[in-house]
Design a protein that fits this description.
Layout (H helix, E strand, L loop, with lengths): L11 E2 L2 H7 L2 H5 L3 H13 L7 E2 L3 H8 L3 H13 L3 E4 L3 E4 L27 E3 L8 H11 L3 H5 L10 H13 L9 E4 L1 H13 L5 E6 L3 H9 L3 E8 L2 E2 L1 H11 L3 E4 L13 H14 L2 E5 L27 E6 L11 E4 L2 H15 L4 H12 L1 H26 L13 E5 L5 H10 L2 E5 L13 E5 L4 H16 L16
Parallel strand pairs: 1-2, 5-15, 7-8, 7-10, 10-11, 11-12
Antiparallel strand pairs: 3-4, 6-13, 8-9, 12-13, 14-16, 15-16
Helix pairs in contact: 1-4, 3-5, 4-5, 6-14, 8-14, 9-10, 9-13, 11-12, 15-17, 16-17
Bound molecules: pyridoxal-5'-phosphate.
Pyridoxal-5'-phosphate binds next to α9.
Length: 495
Amino acid sequence: MANGRVVQTADRTLGSRQLAALLPSEVLARPGYRSLADAVRTLILDGRIALRVRLPAERELAEALGASRATVTGAYDLLRESGYVRSRRGSGTWTELPEGHGAVGAHLLLGSGGYQADGDPGIDLAIAALGAPEDSLTEALAWAAPRLPGLARSPGYHPFGLPDLRSAVAERFTRRGLATRPEQILVTAGAQQAFSLVVSLLCGPGDRVVTENPTYANALDALRHARLRTGSIAVSDAGWDMEIAESTLRQTVPRLAYVVPDFHNPTGLLMPQELRLRLLAATRRTGTWLVVDETIADIALDVPAPAPLASLAPRGGAEHVVTIGSLSKTHWGGLRVGWVRATAKMITELAAVKVAADMTGSVLDQLVAQPLLEGLERTLPARLAQLRGQREALERALERHTPEWSWERGPGGLSLWVDLGEPVGSALAERAGACGVHVGRGARFGVDPGTFEHRLRIPYTLGPELLDEAVRRLAAAFHDGVPLAPAVERPHWVA
Ligand SMILES: Cc1ncc(COP(=O)(O)O)c(C=O)c1O
C-alpha cells in the first residue's frame, strides 16, 4: 500500500518495437524527452497503452527509437513525476494514472429516463438505439395474436426458448454462412443477458478477460460485477491493434475475450478479415473463449453485412467461439429478445444458468420476435436508409456548431466517436445534462477509469431536427465562457 492505495505492478509487457510503432512520426523523427513523455501520456489516456503495462527498459527503447538513453530517462522521469508511470526495482516501469484521476459524473449509461425540473423531457443521446418500426411491429402482433392461445395451453416455460424461434435464429445463421442447428441456440432476454449468462458459466471471480478498449460500456459493467480482471485490445480511429492483442493474449492467457467486430460500439469500425483470422487463431492457441457480440452486425450502412466471425474458422476450429446477438438494434430494445449460439453442449449448460436467473423468457415477446426475425431482410433496408440520413444530419450539425471536433466515420453502427480535442468529456456531458442533453461521455467506454476523456459517443438514432438541436446545446455548453474542468490536468511540460 502507498498512501492507503493498493500498488499494482505490471501484468504484461510492451516491447520497445511495439511502443515505437505506436508513437507519432514527429516523435520518431526527433525524439525529445518532453515530446516522448507527452506522446506516451496521450497513448495511455486514449487507452492505446493499457494501465499496468510494463514499458520497455530505457536502454532498449533508446535503441529502438535511435535516441539517447538520456532522452528516454528524461521522458520516464517526467511521466513518473506526473503520475503516469511508476517504477520499482525488479519490477521495471509500468503505466498507471495519476492519483485522484478517475471517473466523474453519472455512472450508468441508461439515458435520461425522465424529465428535468422545468418539464422539458430533454434530448436523449445516451442510448444508441431506435424506436420500434411501427408497421412491422403491428404486423408481428397481428401474426402472434391468434397463435398465443395455442401456446398458452401449456405452462409457458421454455428455458431454451420457443422452438420455432430457435429454428428461425439457427436458419438465419446458416443463411449467413455459419451452419447452425436449433440445439445450438439459446434464446435470451437480449444480448446483455446473453453476455452475462456466458460470463457466469465460463468465468469465476478473479479470472482474467480481455475486451476491446474502448468497448460497449454495459459489457464492462457485467465484467466488473462478476469481479473479473480486464485486459484490453486497443481500438483507435485506425482500427484494432492486433499485434498488441496477440501479445496480450500470449502473455496473460485470458479465460475469455469479448469483441464487437461488426460496427464496433462505440467507433462503428468493422474488423478486417485478416484480423478476424488472427484473432480466431490467437484465442484458439491460448485456449481463450472468444465471445463475439453481433448485436450491431446488421447495421451495415456502407458495406454489405459481414458473415459471422465464427464462419471463418477452419472446420472444427470454432468450438471456442460463442456468438451473441439480439433484435434490439434491428427492431426494438423493448422486445428483450436475443440469443447465444454455441455448441449444443454449452447451450444446455447455459440454459441451466438461465433457469437460475429468470426461469424462462417471455413467450409473448418471443412469439412477436419470430415474424420480425423472419422478415428482417425485407424491413432492414428502410431502417438503414433512415440511419444513413440521420448520420449525415449529425455530421452536418457537428460541422456547423463544433467545427473543432473531429471523428472517423465507421462503415456502420449507430454512433460517432467524437474527439473533442481536450480531455473534458465528463465535464461536458455533465454540463450538457443540465441543458437537457444526455450523452455518453467517452470515459464510460474505457476499460480503465479516467481514459477516453477526449471523447463523446454521439448516436444518430434521433431525427435530424433533434440531432441539430442536441449538437447546438452541446456546442453552447462547450463554448460557454466558463472553461470546462479537464479530467486530466495538462502536465507542466505540455505547451
Ligand atoms: C454491442 C452491444 N451489445 C449488447 C447490447 C445490448 O443489447 P440488448 O438490448 O439486446 O441487451 C448493445 C446495446 O446497445 C450493444 O451495443
